[in-house]
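Students often ask why inverse folding is considered easier than folding. One informal answer: many sequences map to the same fold, so there is more than one right answer. In these notes we will look at a single instance of the problem. The structure comes first.
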């Protein structure tokens, strides 16, 4: 029988990528935090960085080196404006990319927003036994990704990354 890792502890860090959000008005980051806590997962860190590749990669790399963090959820910067570089920043760090995450996210989004779903560059992967996810910055996208994809599978993802 394949392990489900249902008992795996989740110790998450949340990163909002935005030139305009603050801790007070970051609805998406706050929503991720409340959903993780409702699922009885531990939120270890929560930060906001500008839409700059160096800022994103530096923070995510640092968290991947932190043994108290095993999951990172990034929100924002996944679109096609010139400042949207979360996808490039994260994929440059990944040891492995979970292509099914982005595919499923866009498929589920299509039900809600139609063909505009294809403009999302939601992505997931791993580095140093740390699960990493990137969601769009909209609250609806965060709800969809967290409730339908991340919360139900993050323990399995972390468990697989740590399997011998």
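Output (designed amino acids):
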């Amino acid at each position: 029988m394949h392990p489900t890792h249902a008992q795996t502890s989740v110790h998450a860090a949340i990163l909002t990528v935005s030139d305009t959000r603050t801790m007070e008005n970051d609805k998406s980051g706050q929503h991720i935090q409340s959903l993780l806590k409702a699922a009885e997962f531990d939120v270890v860190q929560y930060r906001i960085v500008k839409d700059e590749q160096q800022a994103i990669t530096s923070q995510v790399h640092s968290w991947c080196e932190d043994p108290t963090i095993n999951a990172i959820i990034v929100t924002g910067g996944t679109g096609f404006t010139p400042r949207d570089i979360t996808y490039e920043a994260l994929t440059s760090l990944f040891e492995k990319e979970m292509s099914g995450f982005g595919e499923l996210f866009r498929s589920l989004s299509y039900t809600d927003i139609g063909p505009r779903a294809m403009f999302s560059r939601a992505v997931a992967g791993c580095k140093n036994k740390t699960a990493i996810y990137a969601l769009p910055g909209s609250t609806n996208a965060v709800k969809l990704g967290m409730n339908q994809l991340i919360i139900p599978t993050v323990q399995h993802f972390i468990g697989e990354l740590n399997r011998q």
